[in-house]
Specification:
Blueprint (H helix, E strand, L loop, with lengths): L14 H14 L2 H11 L5 E6 L5 H6 L7 E7 L2 H18 L2 E4 L4 E4 L4 E8 L16 E5 L7 H13 L3 E15 L5 H11 L14 H10 L3 E6 L2 E3 L4 H18 L4 H16 L4 E12 L9
Parallel strand pairs: 1-2, 1-6, 2-5, 6-7
Antiparallel strand pairs: 3-4, 4-5, 7-10, 8-10, 9-10
Helix pairs in contact: 5-7, 6-8, 8-9
């Protein structure tokens, strides 16, 4: 979704923004799909996991405790700032959760009572290097809040590669175009429409699918795999003021890019919403979906 609200000078996602959104992300995710994936993972002899757009490791921190022992993760991102922060964020999580951790410059090993994982990370240009990634040795391909940035062609290529190599897929927190503020205000509908138009711009992968991305991937995977889609809406409470404010500021900027002629209305809308946020009268729902696809037994793997 349009959430480059705390971006660095290169236009990427900042560690500050990713930290701010992580509690909302984890609370929103589909428990049913997580359990379904965990059941599948227990049947695998080895679990090699490829994560795309890993940021500082939020998706890893959520999934790892659910997937059992002997996990092997390769975390990919284009942003070197986020990759530099990644092992520090994993260490902080491990210390907070009482998880054993050992680190080197290139490897983090974590171990809890019910899970263990070896984690490596590397820079990757996902937009242009998708076909070069190690799908052949991967059991699970995953990502969080990534798909709406990507194009139809990229999503179809991703599905083809996962099907060909019998990789399971879990892509979560795919923005689906729904935004609902409480209390409602007059300009809410117009801003949501502008944001959804903004979502369709080129985010580095070609014309983005935006709110249609989750459905597009599920449709492509569902032709050959067992695919499930579940809602994973953000439910942002009045006390989550910093997250609401970051979204509000970023959304106004995105809307002004598309509709500079509406700057006065956007400013009034922003000021009114800002007052509601600061007085803890504002809550917010943002629509997302989680997509899980599991390979069908008996398929032939392409090497």
């Amino acid at each position: 979704m349009v959430d480059k609200t705390e971006s660095d000078s290169a236009g990427g996602f900042s560690p500050t923004w990713l930290t701010l959104r992580e509690p909302a992300d984890h609370a929103a995710r589909s428990g049913r799909l997580t359990r379904k994936l965990a059941d599948w993972a227990r049947e695998q002899s080895a679990l090699h996991i490829l994560e795309m757009g890993c940021g500082t490791g939020s998706n890893f921190r959520y999934l790892c405790p659910h997937l059992g022992h002997d996990q092997e993760w390769t975390l990919l991102d284009y942003d070197p700032v986020l990759l530099a922060q990644l092992p520090l964020s994993i260490r902080q999580w491990a210390e907070d959760e009482g998880v054993d951790i050992d680190t080197t410059d290139e490897l983090v090993t974590v171990a809890g009572k019910d899970f263990s994982a070896r984690v490596r990370w590397q820079q990757a240009d996902l937009a242009n290097e998708l076909s070069t990634l190690p799908f052949a040795k991967t059991k699970l391909v995953t990502g969080s809040a990534l798909l709406d940035l990507t194009s139809q062609g990229w999503l179809e290529q991703l599905a083809e590669l996962c099907i060909a190599h019998q990789c399971a897929c879990l892509f979560v927190l795919n923005y689906d175009g729904r935004i609902q503020w409480q209390p409602q205000r007059q300009f809410d509908t117009q801003t949501t429409a502008l944001l959804n138009r903004h979502q369709l711009g080129d985010k580095g992968f070609g014309p983005a699918m935006g709110p249609l991305a989750g459905h597009t991937l599920a449709q492509a995977l569902g032709s050959r795999q067992q695919c499930s889609v579940e809602p994973s809406d953000w439910q942002i409470r009045p006390e989550q003021q910093a997250l609401q404010q970051a979204l509000l500021d970023g959304w106004r900027t995105a809307c002004e890019e598309l509709a500079p002629e509406s700057a006065d209305e956007l400013e009034r809308w922003h000021d009114e919403r800002q007052h509601l946020i600061s007085s803890r009268q504002s809550s917010l729902s943002v629509g997302h979906t989680d997509v899980l696809s599991l390979p069908v037994s008996g398929q032939t793997t392409t090497s």
